[in-house]
Amino acid sequence: MQKHSMWSFRFSTASLVLIPAAVGINYIGKLIAGLLKLPLWLDSIGTILASMLAGPIIGALSGAINNIIYGLTVDPISFIYGITSIAIGLAAGVLFYKGWISSLSKAAAAGLIVGLVAAVVSTPINVSFWGGQTGNVWGDALFAVILAKTDSVWLASFLDELVVDVPDKLLVVLISYCIFRGLPQNIVQLYSNNKLETLD
Predict the structure, then answer these.
(1) Nearest-10 Cα torsion for 84, 13, 101, 163
(2) pLDDT of the residue at 4
(3) What CATH number should be reported for the domain holding residue 70?
(4) Which listed residue, 82, 83, 167, 172, has the most CB atoms within 10 A of its CB?
């Protein structure tokens, strides 16, 4: 029952309204991280929140649309990483439905898993387009060290991505969990009811 509703393509009005809200949250987070030159992305809070409320499909759509808009308005590089955003939305949605984001400690564990997923998906993109680097100062410094010691672009690129993605997604999932817990119960119930209706 739960699995069927999790992958439903019957979008409710509430779910469709959630997408632009999630995109807005993602966009603002990414802008703040960029302006403050933080060693994190902070661009998937909306994606993960949408996945928790409305399921992995809505979360993945929110992430992909955010990358398209950011790519059109700020940085064209963002287009390519839409694949990573989709993976983040799907992973967070599945983890939530499996009960992995039901407490602070579980949310932290889920953040580590989502970070690992993001790093695995992003590494081939980084290698294909940027020689393995992420453009993040901290990650690229590690990339240079690992590459010099091992001569492995793939290992250096993966660790470059991992040291940024894991703390980023850990923080983002914890923030999303706290926002979710703070939402009025009638809003959470609205999405729960919609998910159940898709099974009728």
Answers:
(1) 20
(2) 44
(3) 1.10.1760
(4) 172
Q: What is the pLDDT of residues 150-170, one digit of tens each?
A: 999 999 999 999 999 999 999
Q: Is 161 left (phi over 0), alpha (psi -120 to 50) or beta?
A: alpha
CA dihedral 59, 79, 107, 38 (to 10 degrees): -140
Segments forming the whole domain that contains residue 108: 2-124+165-197
Return the structure tokens found at 158: 């993966």
Instruction: Report yes or no on 120 lying in a domain.
Output: yes
Q: DSSP class of residue 183?
A: S
Cα dihedral 120/126/131/137 (nearest 10): -100
Question: Looking at the 3D structure of the chain, how many domains does it have?
Answer: 1
C-alpha angle 168-104-166 in degrees, rounded to nearest 5: 20
